[in-house]
Amino acid sequence: MLPDVHRTVDAAWKLESAKIVASLTRMVRDVGLAEELAQDALVAALEQWPVSGVPDNPGAWLTTTAKRRALDHLRRTQRLERKQEQLAHELGQRQDRHHDPDARPDDEPDDVLRLVFLSCHPVLPTESRAALTLRLLGGLTAQEIARAFLVTETVITQRVAGAKRTLAEEGVPFELPDGDHLAERLSSVLEVIYLIFNEGYSATSGDDLMRPGLCLEALRLGRLLAELAPRETEVHGLVALMEIQASRAAARTGPSGEPVPLHEQNRGRWDQLLIRRGFTAMLKAREGLVEGEAGGAPGPYMLQAAIAVCHAQARSAEDTDWAQIASLYATLTRILPTPVVRLNSAVAVGMAYGPGAGLELIDALLTDPVLRDYHLLPSVRGDLLARLDRFDEARVEFRRAASLARNAAERAFLERRADALGAAAPVGPVLGEAAEEFLRRDDLDPATRRSYGQTLRRLRRSLGDRQPLASLTADQVTRVFTTAWGEAAAATWNRHRAAVRSFGAWASLDDLAAGLDRRAGTRPRARPLDPAQLDAVWSLPDLPLREETLWRLLYESGAGATAVLSLDVEDLDLDDRRARSRSGSPGSAGSWVSWRSGTARLLPRLLAGRTRGPVFLSDRRPGPARTPGASDLCPDTGRRRLSYERAEYLFKQATRPLDPARDGYTLRRLKPHHRDR
Q: What is the pTM of this model?
C-alpha cells in the first residue's frame, strides 16, 4: 500500500506543483520561498497520507496545505498585514472545496503563466532558465534534471539556487510582461522550451541518441503554454514543430541505438496521433495569422513547423517537396540568419538542386566561429562530397565529424559512414600523427611545447587528424586562423603564427603561414588593482589555498605569471623568501622571485610536505593521451603543473562579481605599482 501512496503523491506533485508554486509566488512575492513552502506541503503529504489516506482531491489538499504554510510565514514575519484577512478568507473558501473532486486548486491560471515568464526571464543564463523551468513548472527534482542533462546533481542545485538568487537581487516582478516587452519575453520562454526538447530529441552528449523524458516534458510545457496563451501564433507553431518531430522518435534509431537519417526512416513507425496533433496546432497558428495576431507574417517557429509539415505530408522520402522546403528555409534565413539555420538551408538546397549547390553554401560557413566545433558541419559536408563521388575528401570530413561529436551513438554512426566509403589510398603521414611527432621533439622546452600544442590542437580539430599532410595548404591554415583567432590580440595571433611556421618548416611543407600577416600592436599596460579592489580579492569567500597562494605571490613578488607558475619546490628558499624561476630559455639561469609575509604564511601549507615537482599543481591527473614531460609532472601526486591559461581562467571567474564590467580581472593586474612595493 505504501508504494502506491508514494506514487500518488509523486503524480499529484508533478501535475499540481506549477500551479501551487505560482499561486504561492503571488502571495509571498519570492519564488525561492514559494518553492520551499510548496516542498513543505509535499513533505506533509508524504508523512500524513500513508496514515490518513489519500484525499479525494490531492491537488486541492496540497494547495491548501501550502497556502497555510505561506499564511503562517506572512504572519510570523509581519509582512503584508493588511492582506491577512483577505488571504484568510481565500483559504477558508479553499477549505470549503477541499472534498469537492471537481474543484480546481487555483482559480487564477494567469499565475502559472506569470511563473513561466519568471523562470524564463532573460536576466538568467540559458542553462539556469532550463533548470529552473523544469524544477518549478515540471516538478522535477534536482536529481531528475541532472540525470536528464548528464550533469551532477550539485550542478543543477547550484543553477537553480543561483537563478532564484538572481531573480531576487534583480527584483524581477511576478507579473505578465506588457505589450512592449511581451514579444521579447515570449521569445525567451519558447527558446527554453525548445532547448529542453532538442536536448531530449538529439542529446548533445552521453551514450544514447535521445532522452525521451526531456522531449515529453517540453511537449507538456508547450501544450500548457498554448492553453495559457491561446492567441500567440508562435506558441502554436512551436507546439506543432515539437509534436511532428516527436512523432519520428520510434523511427530515428536502429536496433543498436544507431541514428537513422530522416530519408532512410521507416515512415510506418511515425506516430500518426502526434502528427495529427501537430497539424492541429499548425492550423491554430495559421488561424492566428489570418486574424492578424502577428501582423500576417509567420515567425521562426511557425516556419520551422511548416518545414516539418512538408516532411510529414510526404508518403516517402522520394516524395518530399525539397524545393518547397528550400524556399521555406530561405524565408527563415532572412528573419533568423543564424549559422545553424543557414546550415540546414544548405542541406535543403543540396537535396533540391544538387550536392554542388549545397556544397557551395556549406563552404561559405567554414569560417564561421560559431560552427568551428559543430560536428554536423563536417558531417553535412561529407555527405555532399560523397554524393559528388569525392570519397577521399568525404572520408576525412566524416572522421573529423566523429572526433567532434560528444554523443557516443552519433560518433559511432559517423565512423561507420567513413568506413563505408572504403579504405583510403596510402597518402603518407597525416596531420594528427605528424603533430604528435613534432611535439615529441627534444629541443622544445615545456612552455614552448604547451604553446605549440594549443595551435596544433586547433588545426587538428578544424581539419581532422586524418587530413593528409601533403594536402595541407596555406589557404586551409588561413581559414582556421580567421575562424579561431580572427579577433585575438596581436600577441596571440603572432604566437600561433610562429607555431604553424615552425611546424611547416619541420614537416618540409610550403610556407603554411603565407596568408597570415604578422600583426603589429603593443599590449596596453594593465592597470594594477587599487587597494580597495585588492581587499575585495583577498576577502573572497571560500578561497582555495592554491589560488590564494598564487595570487599573493604574484602581488608580493611583482613577477610575471609565467615565471611564478614555472617554480619547482626544489627552487624554493623558504627561509630567505625567494626562489629561482626557470621560465627563461633552455640553459638560461632564469631570474629570482621573492615574496613577503603573506606568501610565506601560505606556502608551507600549500606544499604539505612535498619536496619536489611543480609548486602549483592542476586539480586532476592528466589523461594517458596528454601526459606532460617529467619536468611538468609531480612525482608524488601524479598531477601536472598548473597552466597559465587555467590560472588566468580561474582568476577571471573568481573576480567576475568584483569587476563592474563583469569580465573578471586578469592576473597581470595583481602586479603592483613600483611605489607600492
A: 0.61
